[in-house]
Amino acid sequence: MSFVQTGLFRNSPSIITATKNQHRATDNRCCTNTGQKSDNVYVENYFAPAPVTSRGQPVRLSTDPKGEKIVYASGRTIVMRSLSEPEKAWEYTGHTTTATVARFSPSGYYVASGDVTGKVRIWDAINDEHILKSEFQPLSNRVADIAWDMESKRIMAVGDGKNNFGQVFTFDTGNSVGTVMAHSRVINACAMRQRRPFRAVTCSDDTKCVFYHGAPYRYANLLNDHTGFVQDVKYAPSDEYFVSVGADRKIFLYDGTSGELVRQVAAGDAEGAHTGSILAVAWSPDSRYIMTSSSDRTCKFWDIGEDRLVGTTVIGDGSRAPEHQQVGNVWAGEHIVSLSLSGALNYLQMDSATPVRVVAGHQRAITAAALTQKQALYTASYDGQLCTWDFSGNSPLGVATIAAGSLGAVRVEDAAASGELVALGLLDGQLRFAEASAVTAAGAVGLGAAPRSLALDASGTTVIAVLQDDGVVVVRNGQVTRVELGDEDSAAPRVVAMDAASSLVAVGFADFSVRFYTLSGAALTPTGARVIGHTREITALSFSADGALLASGDAGGKIIVAHPKSGDVVTKRWGAHTARIYKIDWAPDAAHAASASLDGHVIVWSVEEPNSKITVRNAHLGGASTVHFLDNDTVVSTGADAAVKVWGFTYE
């Protein structure tokens, strides 16, 4: 038997694309097909994470010159996605620390991205390889914003640092072409005029804006009109004006060439003014309007020529929930997008009081996932957000739905599905249930401690949970029973799995063993069968669909396949992972299994040929957390990068 993978090739360690059926040359540094056959590895779909946000801190969004793509930072990943079809996305993973900002060059050929250590990487935005052009370190701390000049040759990078708060340098050699000065605190944003004479402007927490002449860029004058933190500054597409906004809720318009104050925008409209800090501003393509995004949960549209408010969009349900605060925006052609603190991208129209579309996703690492019988994937992230993804074909692929109801921003430790019901084990020791893309209002059960692992029976009425206090409980029709496993020693349980076709239960222990039990009511009775051979504590268990096989993974990356009834080992040769196994799942035909590991790899294994495997190296930055088979030829994985990825395979 051999493996040939179908779908889309992941060709570089720093880029993954989401367009189907586009084949490219192989790069063995990223993914390999291990065994005797070809080294091709493919991904069918990439569903991007949302931008990472922080309360009270603006987030920079950027679009390409054609206004077709948006780019932003999400963890260590730089995400590019289509504005018209946001389910189509690409990722760049060249940063080794948390990325903070990314900007397209005016030519559209490059993207400059910065991170929390002060590094700026310039890389190819056109070719599929996204080759790194250059890397510099203009700052010693976080890069807050980046701007390109009209020639796509000079870059201004600003933010925080020990000796300076910004630098201007050439994109290819890193030579200095200006000095950023006159600020006494962190610089929040910068903008460069896109025609001659060259000009630039920066804004800072010191309540000042500084105007520069160039090139080389040098201090021209100080703008003292704001009385609070200045959060954003933008040149109009016409370059006739630039505008600044800040925490003082004021908007100032300046001459783009001289830097002189023209006026405060709509200074006399007290009723229409924002009631919270303005964190971002964007110009319309015709330079007639600006949009401001505020922590008061609104976006406002202003007519610059007539100096008046022309529209207001309220984000959210009208409540004062902080997740609806607006922290970033962009205006590209017909697409007007504002970013919520929750990471949602809100598509707006000037004449609409509410968003016309909301694109949601995860901002933090995905910690648990469960796949229902109708192929709805529930994913839960570190911040307690629960999303669903429909793989049944009944709705657009790649569009996340935020589950109705609330988990109280509590992390989900594990999830298990039976039919359409999903059990969720929360860090606060609560057991919750979800169905039909909603967290059920009733049925929350207190387990007594946070769960490590959950198993749900075929009827959906019984849940077995291994707790972090080393206890095991059976939840049956809402009643919690703490059970004794009846073994002769007191090894701590770590993980549990249940055979959907029978009452057989497997429990993995810290003493490296797997033991089997039968479930009767709320009691677990040992069968006497054990799986022996692991050298680290058991971290993952999975029964095949027919119940004939059990795969067990440990903290060292080893997987053993055994017969559940006897404990006899089928194979011990699934040992390619180098770190903790987080999840194992079987194909419907039980001929293959897939594993997700802390090492970031996703591996598909063969029962018939244990030495043949397909390794998707670095499938997820920071580790792959879950994996599920959608059918015999397709798996979906999640990871610490907050992304959902679909991989397709064929077996010969």
From TrEMBL:
Which regions are annotated as WD repeats?
92-133, 223-264, 271-312, 359-399, 574-615
Q: What is this protein called?
A: WD40 repeat-like protein
Q: Which Gene3D superfamilies match?
A: YVTN repeat-like/Quinoprotein amine dehydrogenase
Q: Name one GO biological process term.
A: actin filament depolymerization
The record's Pfam families line, in alphabetical order, gives: WD40
Task: Tell me a Gene Ontology molecular-function term this record carries.
Answer: actin filament binding
Does Iron appear among the keywords?
Answer: no
One of the record's GO cellular component terms: cortical actin cytoskeleton
Keyword set for this entry? Repeat, WD repeat
